[in-house]
């Protein structure tokens, strides 16, 4: 009722909901910092839509809602006298399975033809701990997300979900993201896997069945 009183037209409705979306994203990032990559994908997607497709200024309302996120580092600095953008857990060694520097040093060792086996084993062990080799459905989910991210004629919403899922899954290369921390990532990727099976696998099986029947 309050919204209907103060919001007069369709653009105002959209601006209000973009502000509300920004506010909810800020709260989500504050509660679960590990979803930040997917939030950044969503923000980029909306910014692109507003600037290039709608040519509106709705992104300003989105950023206004997102401004609540600025209170997190201010709060952390006030109480700890240390600049922490989101959460201190992101920098703890016990939460990091493999550091970005580990990948960099491994690549350098490979290029110099002196492979660092210690780093290699550390990274492989970490990734194997996050995705088991026998969990075929996860591998297929990642493949389907990559497929629709790169496929030229992909509905924008499917590409958006695919990139969001991949952005979250990419965190497993560094962090221990199992359990409840990975629910959103795998839910999004399984949605894309179901879409891929419905639009690619099932029609292919149907064509093979019709060919054998004839």
Walk me through what this model shows.
The protein has 214 residues and is mainly α. It has 2 domains: 1-91, no CATH class; 131-214. It has 10 helices and no strands. α8 crosses α9 and α8 (136-150) crosses α10. The chain starts with a helix and ends with a helix. It has helices at 2-6, 10-31, 36-53, 58-66, 71-80, 100-111, 117-130, 136-150, 156-169, 183-213.
The gist of it:
This protein is mainly alpha-helical. The protein contains ten helices and no strands.
Q: State mean pLDDT (0 to 100 scale).
A: 76
Question: What Rg, in angstroms, do the CA atoms define?
Answer: 22 Å
Helix content: over 70%
Return residue spans where pLDDT drops below 50 for at least 5 consecutive residues.
1-8
Provide the structure class.
Answer: mainly alpha
> End-to-end span in angstroms?
62 Å
Largest sheet: none
Based on DSSP secondary structure assignment, what is the total number of beta strands?
0
Order of helices and strands: HHHHHHHHHH
Principal-axis shape: flat
């Amino acid at each position: 009722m309050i919204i209907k009183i103060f919001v007069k037209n369709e653009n105002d409705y959209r601006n209000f909901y973009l502000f509300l979306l920004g506010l909810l994203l800020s709260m989500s990032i504050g509660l679960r910092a590990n979803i930040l990559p997917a939030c950044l994908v969503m923000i980029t997607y909306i910014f692109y839509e507003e600037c290039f497709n709608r040519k509106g200024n709705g992104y300003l309302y989105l950023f206004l809602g997102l401004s609540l996120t600025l209170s997190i580092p201010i709060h952390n600095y006030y109480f700890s006298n240390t600049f922490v953008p989101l959460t201190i857990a992101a920098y703890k060694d016990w939460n990091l399975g493999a550091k970005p520097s580990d990948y960099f040093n491994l690549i350098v060792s490979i290029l110099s033809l002196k492979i660092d086996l210690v780093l290699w084993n550390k990274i492989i062990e970490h990734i194997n701990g996050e995705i088991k080799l026998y969990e075929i459905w996860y591998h297929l989910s990642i493949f389907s997300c990559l497929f629709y991210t790169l496929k030229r004629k992909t509905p924008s919403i499917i590409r958006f979900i695919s990139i969001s899922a991949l952005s979250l899954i990419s965190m497993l290369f560094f962090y221990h993201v199992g359990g409840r921390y990975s629910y959103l990532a795998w839910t999004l990727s399984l949605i894309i896997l179901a879409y891929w099976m419905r639009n690619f696998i099932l029609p292919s099986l149907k064509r093979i069945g019709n060919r054998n029947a004839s």
